[in-house]
Design a protein that fits this description.
mainly alpha, 13 helices, 78% helix
């Protein structure tokens, strides 16, 4: 957890090393393997041992394993996922699951967090299929890694401020909106300034990407 957002890079490193095995299992067992990954995600919330839970959340991330396997599954069934009918089905299933997640969330019921992991692939695929490709400027795409690394800094401090002020109670959506705006646009601004005035520092921090 001390790695901050870089825990994901560590997980991805582990998954790449294990990718021949994960690819073999995904190719052979397909949807059954994805179902097993999701069930393990559900069961993780019931694990009482915090050390075990932390390991499967931050080191060998079960949510990361699920998404990694979904990507391999789509790759092996590429023709299936070029169909407009498949995208419509994915959008419908995703919206139904999202509705269930919202109901569970507002009723403080279990499994709504894990259900979110299932919602994302369906809606992401549908969005990817229906929204046409847009040419994004190179300078903006080059900010993706810096945004990933730096966005948690304002998130944490603004979140701390929100807990110490009554404004958060009166306007519950205010601070989440501020966190997003500052985290996203602030990271881009810092990246561009570093690249312009301290290019060597920028290259050392972000690998020249």
């Amino acid at each position: 957890v001390a790695l901050g957002p870089l825990w994901y890079i560590r997980c991805l490193f582990f998954f790449v090393l294990a990718s021949p095995i994960i690819a073999f299992v995904t190719k052979k067992y397909g949807k059954w393997w994805l179902a097993l990954c999701f069930v393990m995600l559900l069961l993780l919330n019931q694990v009482p041992d915090q050390d075990v839970k932390s390991f499967f959340k931050w080191s060998w991330s079960l949510s990361g394993l699920f998404y990694f396997s979904v990507g391999i599954f789509i790759k092996y069934r590429e023709k299936l996922f070029t169909s407009g009918k498949t995208a419509i089905t994915a959008a419908g299933v995703g919206l139904i699951l999202l509705t269930i997640k919202i109901i569970l969330f507002y009723n403080s019921m279990r499994f709504q967090t894990s259900l979110g992991h299932l919602v994302i692939p369906f809606l992401l695929y549908a969005t990817w299929h229906f929204i046409p490709a847009v040419k994004i400027p190179d300078w903006l795409t080059a900010c993706s890694f810096p945004i990933f690394v730096m966005h948690m800094i304002p998130f944490q401090y603004i979140g701390l401020i929100s807990k110490r002020t009554s404004v958060n109670l009166a306007y519950p959506t205010l601070f989440p909106t501020i966190k997003f705006l500052v985290g996203f646009f602030g990271s881009i601004a810092v990246t561009l300034l570093l690249r312009k005035y301290l290019p060597r520092v920028s290259k050392a921090l972000f690998g020249g990407r």
